[in-house]
Design a protein that fits this description.
single chain
């Protein structure tokens, strides 16, 4: 009687299992990385670009080696802020349904775990640069906690004051990372951060016109909701006053000052003349173009007078 022999070949089978596992892990990694990106995507033009430009001119930037460091530091802290901020699912479901929580890419509970995990991670990252950078990170964490968890964003006065302080902390940390000496800021750099914080505190309500419906749903007190239509020409007036003041402070020549003031008038004028939600979104883009131009003025002063 002949014997039938079965020969097993485990290697192709193991390779197949291993390949499937690696593919699944890679897919999960891409998915979660995309989720993290979605937390910050809407703030790329409104935060990443203006503050990165600001840090480069306020530092001033002397080595291109510092650019990826300042961009990552800023993005990582923006991620920490946004995971804290984006826990009002009712508002986001109305205003920004593509964000991770309303889009059901991450649960509210897991977003809060991520939020509190990122806080010490930001401090550790900052300490790797300098103690002063860590202090800026810790200050930002306190302002974030006051703004979101303590509901400082629900009242007009605290909302805009904390916006100014928060942006100043963002800028201080990013500017320190942009410097070769990450332990101190020079006089023009400190003045630029102070002025920028004041600009945001007094004009950042430009972002609230597009969110009036969602803010109303959760009872948030914003200038556009409280004062209505008059807040639009008030914003235009504020932007023009800041444009003229900054042109004087940074000693801009006639052509530079004229262009900057006209840019501010255009950005602010859009809020007065175009009042639909979609136009308010576009106007906010132009507001951030104006802010970016304001952030470049310290660099103009350094090149011409320093």
């Amino acid at each position: 009687m002949s014997t039938i022999k079965f020969q097993l070949h485990p290697e192709p089978f193991c390779r197949h299992i291993c390949s499937d596992w690696l593919s699944a892990q890679f897919g999960n990694t891409i998915y979660h990385a995309h989720t993290l990106w979605l937390f910050t995507e809407s703030d790329f033009m409104t935060t990443m670009v203006p503050i990165s430009l600001f840090a480069m001119v306020a530092a001033p930037l002397r080595s291109p080696y510092n650019v990826p460091h300042l961009i990552f530091w800023l993005w990582f802290h923006l991620l920490a802020f946004n995971t804290s901020n984006q826990t009002s699912s009712l508002e986001d479901a109305t205003n920004k349904p593509d964000r991770p929580i309303p889009a059901r890419r991450i649960s509210l509970r897991h977003a809060k775990v991520l939020r509190w995990t990122l806080t010490p991670a930001c401090w550790l990252l900052s300490r790797a640069y300098s103690q002063e950078t860590m202090f800026a990170s810790m200050a930002l964490s306190v302002f974030t906690w006051m703004y979101n968890e303590l509901h400082g964003n629900s009242r007009s006065l605290s909302r805009y004051a904390l916006n100014g302080l928060g942006f100043a902390a963002f800028e201080a940390g990013t500017t320190l990372v942009a410097r070769d000496d990450k332990t101190t800021l020079d006089g023009p750099g400190r003045l630029a951060i102070l002025l920028s914080g004041c600009i945001f505190a007094t004009t950042i309500y430009a972002q609230d016109f597009r969110d009036v419906i969602g803010d109303g749903l959760i009872g948030r007190d914003t200038i556009p909701i409280r004062f209505g239509a008059p807040s639009r020409p008030a914003l235009l007036t504020g932007i023009i006053i800041w444009s003229m003041s900054l042109s004087c402070i940074w000693q801009a020549d006639l052509y530079t000052a004229s262009f900057f003031i006209l840019l501010g008038a255009f950005a602010g004028g859009r809020f007065v003349c175009m009042t639909t939600v979609e136009e308010d979104r576009r106007s906010y883009f132009w507001y951030n173009v104006w802010v970016s131009a304001a952030h470049v003025l310290p660099g103009y002063w350094r090149m011409k007078y320093s």
